[in-house]
Design a protein that fits this description.
Strand content: 15-25%
Structural class: alpha+beta
Strand order of the largest sheet: 1-2-6-3-7-18
Bound molecules: ligand BES, manganese (II) ion
Amino acid sequence: MSDAIAFARAHRGRFRQELDDFLRIPSVSARSEHNADLRRAAEWVRSSMTAAGLSARIFPTEGHPVVVGEWKQAAAGAPTILVYGHYDVQPPEPLELWDSPPFEPDIRDGRIYARGSADDKGQLFLHIKALEAHLATRGSLPVNVIVLAEGEEEVGSPNLAPFVQNHLDLLAADTVVISDSAMFAPGQPSLLFSLRGMAYFEIHATGPSTDLHSGGYGGAVANPANALARIVGDLHDAEGRIAIPGFYDDVAPPPPDILSRIRALPFDAEAWTLETGVPPVGGEDAYSPLERLWTRPTCDVNGFLSGYTGEGAKTVLPAKAVAKVSFRLVPNQTPERVRELTERHLERVAPPGISLELVELHGGRPWQARLEGPVFEAAARALERSFATRPVLTGEGGSIPIVVELEEMLGANSLLIGFALPGANMHAPNEWFAVDSFERGIDTLIHLYDELAAGTGNG
Ligand code: BES
Ligand code: MN
Ligand code: MN
């Protein structure tokens, strides 16, 4: 066992307590009443980076702060790794569905239950601890390292791209490494070959200038809720395809090697049904579940607001209806093009008496990995060392919108190496991160630097 691994094992108890402290901070980026908690979380990240041996600074932005830690004393010519993660979390609601409070970490059945344990505080923490283990035992790293932690990922990273653009020297790196995703199955680590992109909108349907008596006016006034329900229903055809004209024009079929990798992976429909309560139906009939999840675009209603939703009946004809609609995108779709097509579609389908408006909330392009290079190889070996099995390559249906932009601005490739397990309840009640993932994750990232030293000749 290496000295760094031994260090991590010896300090496991302290590491776990530190993670608990991090998880206790309710850093909910979507809610302004938590702004001070975001600042506290940023400060927590900065001081844990400093304790690990990085020099770390907090950068205010127009939104939540960015934290950057760095260690750049590797031998001349050594590459630079930029680790990206986020310290903000999703809102915990509905609170009544949590079995233990979201910001009081609780260990049950080998799992750490808390909002952010898997997405992404727990996984960001793994990186900081792996660096600590190396620097505490060796005093150095074989590569230069930058850790970039943001507090706005869960609200679409509105301030991160400008921040990166304004700090290109500070953030210059050869490879971006991100742990903010899941393994394919327990015991089966994976490296990602893709993430879907995102285009998120609200559709506002407006009718009469005020709510009206549904008897006095119903039948002679167009009802925005009825109209929007129809419009939303008509966004898909009977085969589950998205019915916006031109929508599939930019959709590229996945490369043959990716398709054969997907077809070689087992899909456990029973486990899926157990986890979600429904069989893997929905979406396009013509594709398998994994193909639909990883290689096909989607259009989903995330919320629907209109009219009277309180107890009992109220006869009212609402003046307005709003649907929150997100599209997941695949190569070569862009949020801009999807917006154009959707706007044009809405213009065509707006019924008399109803005006429709499309409001963009956020977006990001889909990402595809370049599955090669020394960092990729080193990560595969590191995972094999800690999980005793080779990683599989998988896609991912979720989105991390900044990845493509980071790659373009830095001229770097990204490696996505996630440690959450399927069913971790990211964004849902009872989010958890396995204690086993916590321990093996730290080991893996410690091995990663050893393997990078072997692979880049910078011991
Ligand atoms: N970590 C997730 C994305 C993710 C989830 C990747 C599961 C792989 C597996 C990230 O924090 C996230 O939730 N992203 C959002 C996008 C954002 C713009 C709100 C998403 O995918 O909905
Ligand atoms: Mn995340
Ligand atoms: Mn998330």
